[in-house]
Amino acid sequence: MELAVKDTQSVLSVSRIIFGRDFNEGLIHQVVVAYSAGNRQGTRAQKNRSEVSGSGRKPWRQKGTGRARAGSFRSPIWRSGGVTFAAKTQDHSQKVNKKMYRGALKSIFSELIRQKRLIVFENFSLNSPKTNLLVKKLQEINLKNVLILTNKIDNNLFLASRNLYSVDVKDVHSLDPISLIAFENVIITVGAVKKLEEILS
């Protein structure tokens, strides 16, 4: 299987096992949901009636006052009482094994190639960390909403992209499925493709 390299007008041979997979929507959905769940903080917490501060004494006697009966100052129906179904900290992470995760990435990359949304460059870098330079470079190839994948993070490229909402720069080691499907196009360097084949094989 061959991919066109845009800047050198050459071709790059890649593994069909990795970049020629069928689209597996169910697997991708499962991995994306699990990845999103793992990013949740899960740190919110409230106090129920047993945890909130206050006396344990009965506010007034059961009968004879004419008032509604009450057993605790900490009742959820009282002001400054506990919360009825208090939220607690919890771990939302879901287990996804390596085979599933790699399979989802292979499926996403294969679909990007089929839709001609994966553009390969021999080298994609900037001489200085200027956002304007990156914007011009992307305008030359008629791209706006783009993820740039490199073998190693290019500092100039990373700094130039920080102020652009529709552009992100990642290396292949920090790649995640949500970033891959969130952008319209993906620019990837030849070095990143080779490293990706090592990781996913």
TrEMBL record:
GO terms for biological process: translation. It comes from the Bacteria. InterPro entries: Ribosomal_uL4 (IPR002136), Ribosomal_uL4-like (IPR013005), Ribosomal_uL4_dom_sf (IPR023574). Keywords: Ribonucleoprotein, Ribosomal protein, RNA-binding, rRNA-binding. One of its GO terms (molecular function) is rRNA binding. GO terms for cellular component: ribonucleoprotein complex; ribosome. Signal peptide: none annotated. The keyword Electron transport does not apply. Part of the 50S ribosomal subunit. One of the primary rRNA binding proteins, this protein initially binds near the 5'-end of the 23S rRNA. It is important during the early stages of 50S assembly. It makes multiple contacts with different domains of the 23S rRNA in the assembled 50S subunit and ribosome. Forms part of the polypeptide exit tunnel. Belongs to the universal ribosomal protein uL4 family. This is Large ribosomal subunit protein uL4. It comes from Buchnera aphidicola. The lineage of its organism: Bacteria, Pseudomonadati, Pseudomonadota, Gammaproteobacteria, Enterobacterales. The gene is rplD.
